[in-house]
TrEMBL record:
<comment type="similarity">
    <text>Belongs to the flagella basal body rod proteins family.</text>
</comment>
<keyword id="KW-0969">Cilium</keyword>
<feature type="domain" description="Flagellar basal body rod protein N-terminal">
    <location>
        <begin position="11"/>
        <end position="39"/>
    </location>
</feature>
<keyword id="KW-0975">Bacterial flagellum</keyword>
<comment type="function">
    <text>Structural component of flagellum, the bacterial motility apparatus. Part of the rod structure of flagellar basal body.</text>
</comment>
<dbReference type="InterPro" id="IPR019776">
    <property type="entry name" value="Flagellar_basal_body_rod_CS"/>
</dbReference>
<keyword id="KW-0966">Cell projection</keyword>
<protein>
    <recommendedName>
        <fullName>Flagellar basal body rod protein FlgB</fullName>
    </recommendedName>
</protein>
<keyword id="KW-0282">Flagellum</keyword>
<dbReference type="GO" id="GO:0071978">
    <property type="term" value="P:bacterial-type flagellum-dependent swarming motility"/>
</dbReference>
<dbReference type="Pfam" id="PF00460">
    <property type="entry name" value="Flg_bb_rod"/>
</dbReference>
<comment type="subunit">
    <text>The basal body constitutes a major portion of the flagellar organelle and consists of a number of rings mounted on a central rod.</text>
</comment>
<dbReference type="InterPro" id="IPR006300">
    <property type="entry name" value="FlgB"/>
</dbReference>
<dbReference type="GO" id="GO:0030694">
    <property type="term" value="C:bacterial-type flagellum basal body, rod"/>
</dbReference>
<dbReference type="InterPro" id="IPR001444">
    <property type="entry name" value="Flag_bb_rod_N"/>
</dbReference>
Amino acid sequence: MAITFDKALGIHQHALEARVQRAEILANNMANADTPGFKARDLDFQAMMQKAQDSMSGFSMEKTQEGHMDISGGAGDSDLLYRVPNQPSVDGNTVDAQAEQTRFMRNAMDYQASFQFLNSKFAGMTKALKGE
């Protein structure tokens, strides 16, 4: 029975990819904090993990007829959500710079945790290959 990376690494690789995508979006929000009319966006991390879990289980939906809706996976615009501001600005910008920095730092810590889980999986596989 062959062991694949997908089975060995579990959901951690998908979590790491989602954290990277979220960091890019949060950085974009912070970069546009002074842009009039800019709407802050964020990812639905839980929905992305559910989609990854479904794809790993092998019980995912697939398009069987031309008339069916396209249900292709990946982090598209469907995973991006607009943030509801606590205190909207006069110019229509919904970015709260301090809240975005807090979210970015929290995401960075979560990225480190996901990375450490993934690193421990690789360390375990290395020990198993070496026979330690």
